[in-house]
Amino acid sequence: MSFLALMVLIVYESRWVYPEIQAYFSQTGNLTGQQLATRSRVYLQNAQSELLADQPEQEAFAAAITDIELSYGLSDMHVYRHQYECTEPSLRILNRVLARLEVAEIDRVGAVGELFGPIQCLTHIEMDQLDQRGAAINDFSVSTRQHNQVLTYSSLLIFVMGLVFWWLHERQLRRTDHATQETFEWMQRAMRDPLTGIGNRSALHQDVLAKQHQSLGLILIDIDFFKQYNDAYGHPQGDTLLRQLATLIGETLNDEAQLYRLGGDEFAALLRCPDTETLKSYCCQLIEGIRAADFAHPAHPDKKGVTFSVGGSRFMADEATFAYAYEAADKALYRVKAAGRDGWQVTEDA
Predict the structure, then answer these.
(1) Bridge-partner residues for 272, per DSSP?
(2) Which CDD domains does the UniProt record give (predicted)?
């Protein structure tokens, strides 16, 4: 009877248990796929950082090309092409961006925007690979509980093994979740201006894409004679003024706008805008608000306090119209500067 029981146990393990354990271990290849997708995505994010960094365009393009080529090499895998429909379009986008960067036929912001699609695809691959591993360990745990009802000792052994494997998987999953959370936090920080806490150029572009087909107003705000202010008070006081002005702009627009810092002394505001008259009202409020605040400016050539030059445009949100709207608002801003600053203009029908 003991021999028969042993044979039954051996047959049971060889017929049902061993193949299921093998099936579980066969899923470990998914971790490598997830790691490659993660590395590829990080290279694309590095390329975005290089493009947005404060460095000469030629150096930024060269660094970005290197990162994109590394990402392409990790993404161009048969398993990705076979399992994920977004892989082929993403690779075509990377090829196109590389070609345009090599001949400098694309600006930095445009190149950064092009890379969001491949990044999203790689993130999907990462998550799917993790889901496959999660499904494998879950199936294995269910199978272990079933074995416990048939053979006490064998199911106990399998159950212990299952706990060990589950613990290893959970430990790896926690590490992966922590790394993913750190990546998300890094992406959020990359979209913020560290001095004022408001968005930056990348955040502006991303927010416009998130508001497809909505009627929006874009307002560009330039601090008049900010260099002279820094020369008079020093850069620490200049930084304090920038933070104060960011708060003032938000309060003046009744916190209805999303704010961005585009450069040293240039801000932008993006807000819902049903018509041009509403946009004009917002621009007028900004000029009146800064005048009422009466920030001292001892080096102002016109003996005034801190003043704004404001340009605006209204548009229906999508990637193509945003470029025209930005150009239109910028032209309106420079018309104000040419007219003596401390004022506003709006380009209609941008």
Answers:
(1) 216
(2) GGDEF
User: What SS3 class is residue 120?
Assistant: helix
Burial of 273: CB neighbours in 10 Å, binned 0-12, 13-18, 19+: buried
State residue 303 phi and psi, 5-degree precision: 60, 35
Q: pLDDT digit of tens for each residue in the chain (350 aa)?
A: 544 555 565 565 555 555 555 554 554 444 456 778 888 889 889 988 988 888 888 888 899 899 989 988 888 888 788 888 998 999 999 999 888 888 888 888 888 898 999 999 989 888 887 787 777 777 767 776 666 566 566 555 555 666 777 788 788 888 877 776 766 556 555 788 989 989 999 899 999 988 988 999 999 999 999 999 999 999 999 999 999 999 999 999 987 899 999 988 999 999 999 999 999 999 999 999 999 999 999 898 988 999 999 999 999 998 789 999 999 999 999 999 999 999 999 997 65
- Quote the tokens at residue 346: 């709006």
- Contact partners, residue 209, CB within 8 Å, separation at least 6: 113, 116, 317, 318, 319
Residues in the chain: 350
SS (HEC) of 141-203: HHHHHHHHHHCHHHHHHHHHHHHHHHHHHHHHHHHHHHHHHHHHHHHHHHCECCCCCCECHHH
Structure tokens at 19: 């193949």
Residue 334 tokens, joined: 């420079």
The domains found in the chain, sorted by start residue, are 2-190 (1.20.120.660), 201-347 (3.30.70.270)
Q: Nearest Cα to 334, choosing from 215, 241, 220, 230?
A: 220
Q: Which residues contact 162 (CB under 8 A, 6 or more apart)?
A: 140, 141, 144
Alpha-carbon distance values, 7 to 3, 14, 15, 27, 150 (Å): 6, 10, 12, 30, 14
* Separation between Cα atoms, residue 305 and residue 342, nearest integer Å: 10
